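Please decode residue identities from the backbone states below.
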């Protein structure tokens, strides 16, 4: 019998390198991995694998009646694959879609999980939540950590500090990524200004959601008048992302809600300590010595965390982060996933 083909749904994603990096690691282990796209429905055969990521993009539509039609077709397709002998797997990146949960999402996702041979999650906390929400046995859900981003974002050698006029001696906090009310940027600006520290600077880089006003940052002010806050209010191109991270001393992710943060793993990949709330799986990735986690219910928690990260021993932090990145090695993750594909559910936890 020939080796199975893995149809990664999707294999490439312009907004997230996770599936591309995962596919490469599986290919290094000898598996054939194909991109599941429009027209791929009839390709999988008995023994092949369909591995689903972010299913809401498949079953959701702009109006509910069309969502129902797409969802029923999606579920029918999964039943058809089971009839053919195709094996199904789902990586549960988020328990619910980013737009929020609904009873229909519960209906579709519970059936998807029920039809899968196994599911993957990126943390122990996500495993417990998924099992509880969907009523699934925990041994059907396997933790495979989110791997690092080493070599995914090469540097162009751009001097980001020079671009924004930030002195080299200043401690630079960086927020990078899409900006909306769930990202906590307003709280970050307030906490940073309360530091009243001329030895620090804050750079906020990312595109704001439509209708989200960034006026609270004080774009009209310059230099120390604005508390040395610099704003790049546009999407950060992949080609420049590494240079933004290399310019920073710490990456701040003051999320108000989160499951797993690729941004935290990206920061660690570049050796930067992370400041974040103790939410979701962040504690499993930003482990002791890799940054500062704060209590999201503590009104002064973020300000204290900003101060604490400035006082971390840089060499010790680099060693702790290097240890964490070894745990997030893609080849280790691929070996664990291959065991699950083969029907062997590993009991040990990799993260």
């Amino acid at each position: 019998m020939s080796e199975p083909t893995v149809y990664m749904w999707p294999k490439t994603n312009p907004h997230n390198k996770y599936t591309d990096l995962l596919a490469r690691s599986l290919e290094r282990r000898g598996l054939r991995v194909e991109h599941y796209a429009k027209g791929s429905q009839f390709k999988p055969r008995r023994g092949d694998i369909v591995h689903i990521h972010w299913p809401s993009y498949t079953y959701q539509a702009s109006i509910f009646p069309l969502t129902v039609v797409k969802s029923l077709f999606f579920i029918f397709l999964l039943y058809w694959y089971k009839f053919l002998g195709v094996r199904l797997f789902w990586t549960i990146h988020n328990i619910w879609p980013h737009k929020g949960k609904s009873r229909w999402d519960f209906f579709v996702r519970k059936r998807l999980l029920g039809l899968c041979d196994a599911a993957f999650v990126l943390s122990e906390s996500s495993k417990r939540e998924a099992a509880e929400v969907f009523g699934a046995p925990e041994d059907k859900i396997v933790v495979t950590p989110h791997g690092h981003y080493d070599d995914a974002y090469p540097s162009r050698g751009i001097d980001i500090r020079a671009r924004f006029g930030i002195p080299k001696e200043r401690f630079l906090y960086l927020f990078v990524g899409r900006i909306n009310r769930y990202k906590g940027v307003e709280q970050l600006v307030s906490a940073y200004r309360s530091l009243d520290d001329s030895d620090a600077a804050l750079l906020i880089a990312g595109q704001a959601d439509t209708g989200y006003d960034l006026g609270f940052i004080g774009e009209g002010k310059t230099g120390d008048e604005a508390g040395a806050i610099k704003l790049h209010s546009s999407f950060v191109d992949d080609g420049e992302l590494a240079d933004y991270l290399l310019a920073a001393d710490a990456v701040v992710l003051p999320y108000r809600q989160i499951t797993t943060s690729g941004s935290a793993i990206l920061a660690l990949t570049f050796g930067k300590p992370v400041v974040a709330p103790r939410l979701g799986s962040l504690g499993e990735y930003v482990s002791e010595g890799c940054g500062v986690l704060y209590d999201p219910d503590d009104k002064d928690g973020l300000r204290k965390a900003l101060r604490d990260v400035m006082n971390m021993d840089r060499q010790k932090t680099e060693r702790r982060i290097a240890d964490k990145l070894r745990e997030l090695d893609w080849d280790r993750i691929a070996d664990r996933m291959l065991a699950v594909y083969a029907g062997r559910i590993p009991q040990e936890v990799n993260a």
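Observation: The CA atoms of residues 150 and 210 lie 32 Å apart.
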